[in-house]
Structure formats: C-alpha cells, structure tokens
Amino acid sequence: MLRRILVCTAFSACLYFLLLYKSTLLHTPLVTTKMMRAVVVHGPGGPDALVLEQRPIPVPQSGQILIRVHAFGLNRAEMFTRQGHSPGVTFPRILGIEATGVVAAAPGGEFPEGAAVATVMGGMGRLFDGSYAEYTVVPAAQVKVVNASVGWEIMGALPEMMQTAWGALFISLQLKAGETLLVRGGSSSVGMAAAALARHHGVHVVSTTRNESRRELLLASGAHDVLIDAGSIADEARKRYPDGFDKVLELVGVTTLADSLKIAKRGGVVCTAGIVGGKWVLDEFTPNAMIPTGVYLTTYSSSVAAFMETPLDEIARLVDNGTLRIPIKSYRLDQIVAAHGAMDESTACAKMVVLIE
C-alpha cells in the first residue's frame, strides 16, 4: 500500500510540473531576434575583406532613427577605412558613410514611419556601424527627409557626392556665374558632379583626367574643355588659359596641390576637397613658396551641417530629368566585393551605387 501511495504521489508531482511547464509555454511569447544581411569587415584588407553576413537588426534608442536602407553610394573614404587607414576605427565594422531609404522606427517621434530619408557622415561606418546593410541606426540630427520623386538608384547616388561637390563649389569656392573653374581629378564621381553643377550655374568648366579615353565622358558630364594630366598641367593650362582660373577644385589632393596653385589667377581661390591621389599629408609646406601672391587656398570637408544645407531635392530632380548628367553604375549587396575592386582600380567611371531590394 505504501509503495502505491509513493508511486501515485510521484506521478502527481510529475503531472503538476508538466502542466505548469505547458502553461508557461502557452502564456510566454517566444522572443526571436530579427536578422538582416550586412557586409562586415573584420580587419583591414582588400575587397575580399568585405564579408556578407547575417546580423541582428539594430534597435534604435530615443534620438536615433532606424532606416531600412534601399540604396547607398560607395565612396573612397570607405575604401580607405577598409584598408585600415581611417584613424579611430575598430573592427569588426559595417562600413558606409551614407544611406537612403525609409524610416523603419523613430522612438523619439522625429520622423513618421515610412518617410523617405537620406543621411551622411556623423561617424557612420567609422565610429558606429554604417549603411552596408539592410538596416542602419543613425542619430536623428543627421537625417533629412527627401521629397523628390526619383528612383532609389538616383537618390542613392547623390547625398555624399553632391554635398561634397555643392559644398566645395558654393561654400568654400563661392563660385559665381561667368567665372572659370578647373576641376582637378575630373573623372572622379565628385569631379563629374562638380562639373555638371558648375556648368548649370553658368560657369566655364575645364576638367582634368589622366586617361585620354575619358575625354568624351567628361565633356558629356559638363566640362567645356579637358586637360590630360600627367602629374603637372600648369604649363599647358597657362598656354591655353593665359589668365589662369578664377577657381580651382583640387580633388587629387596634396600630390598635385602645388601645381594647381600655379593655375589660379591673381585673386583666385583653390579648394582642396579630395584625396584621389591616395596621399593625406604634404611632406613639406612652405606657404611663401607654395602659394602664389594673391592666390587663396581653402578646403572643404564633408559634414552633417553642410549636408543639411545641400539642396538635395532640387539636385535629384535635375539629375532625373537629365539636366545634370551624372553617370551611375549600380550593384547588388552581394556584389560588394566586385564594386570595391572597381573602386580600387578606378575603373567604374561613374558614381557606384548599391541597391537593396
């Protein structure tokens, strides 16, 4: 009898805990982490360092915006970060300093869900994970609503490229109609964008390229004339334009800066705004020797504040209707290695954009 009582008691206890466990399962929702595709760099390297992975979708806090990315442009700054040249960057990191897409969540209520937006800089892809993913989280202060009804391929191409071109021309160089402009590094995406913008504003534009085969591309993008650049163009430029140029946009960087300063006329301005030449720092800088008398040297650096000033909607409409002719080449997210390879070799001859379906 005692044995039967003990067996029954044990059975009852097991049944009780089984029912309790079942009840817990029924009343406690399962928590699942939503995932996204993202391109991750685990350490400095070549294009093959870019690895397509599954990552948790980031969760925005108050003051942050979760953007579902539809398109993002590729930039040489990301190439330098991938190579390990951007100070302060830790790995692993999702690259990408710009993005366009729609608001997926805004805990602080800054933007309605579904609004089309663009964002650049502010630490994206360097201090925190950037846009090489299906979703990205950024501070609300660097997000801008876009109202132009254009495709994602066009909108994705514009934010960083156009804020650099527009800012360098109209903030740093204070370009005006009727002036002459030399774009050093004209076959870069920013160079072609700058030529198109300047010509649209009534400026005579001369662009440079190292490659004779790109002459027609530059003329089609907005340049009135093209100079072939073998590293020094000052003598040839002075033969063809004896008075020099009112403004010079230096996109190659410090490797050609001294030569570009010789091309500006008295009272002219040279703005350095790129590092296409791949070098960051001058070996020597003696202002009296390098800067001609009466020529002014300035710079332009991309920033959130400058991005907010850029008339992105207006520019997007001009690109969409063909007024500004900007060559664009698109890739899928799973083609990111090939895209970075083209950027390393400077073979794209277009603004490269990744589209995410």
From TrEMBL:
Molecular function terms, GO-annotated: oxidoreductase activity
Domain Enoyl reductase (ER) stretches: 45-354
SUPFAM superfamilies: GroES-like, NAD(P)-binding Rossmann-fold domains
Pfam families assigned to the protein according to its UniProt record, in alphabetical order: ADH_N (PF08240), ADH_zinc_N (PF00107)
Keyword terms of this UniProt record: NADP
Keyword Zinc: no
NADP is among the record's keywords: yes
Annotated protein name in UniProt: Chaperonin 10-like protein
